[in-house]
Model the fold of this input.
Amino acid sequence: MSADGKTRRTNFITLPDDTPGYRLDAFCVPKNYEEDLSRVIIPGGLIKDRIERLARDIVEDFDEDGFVALCVLKGAYKFFADLLDDIKGLNRNFGRSVPLAVDFIRLKSFVDDQSSGQIEVIGRDNLKHLKGKNVLVVEDIIGTGKTMQKILALLQNVKPKCIKVASMLLMRMSTGSGYKPDYTGFETPDIFIVGYASDYNEYFRDLNHVCEVNEAGKKKYASN
Done:
């Protein structure tokens, strides 16, 4: 159940543990990354189609009070922008419109390809203006779920009307808390993936596709 007591959407796409992915040379990948990636996991076109459906699900679920879309920076910025574009398109053509506002929060929990175990809130503004509001948290990847639980705890303190979470990716991890978002784009194996604004030490955000980083890439872009 989600924060408002409603059942979570389960119509996401599940990638099996043995998913083969796609060859890099079948897609346009920046030349400087070709030696650093092993495969394309989710092509950009499929991502955009999936976001279109997520937008429809979200508009169907929220009432005329609308919601505040809260983007988790930096990784979620592209998913956030594309999702809101589709929601705005539905507001123009869906037969009814859902009022929409935007806000941002930034957290840091990874060093290289591992969670640091510490979740740092960077530049957080006062969130009291969210009291009594419907809030949609928009994240790029949920792994163990600890970062999202931190965000939800912060939000619960200001007593919003309800909280829902949309994540482009949900990673199956043996160390996970079991947390699942209300809206999921794709469920993936526990592999280190980048692209579509998700990074590895600030690299790979400019990839249009979700890709797997190889060992050479991890070594090349590791923090000093």
Summary: The mean pLDDT is 88. The CA atoms of residues 43 and 202 lie 21 Å apart. The chain is about 25% helix and 30% strand.
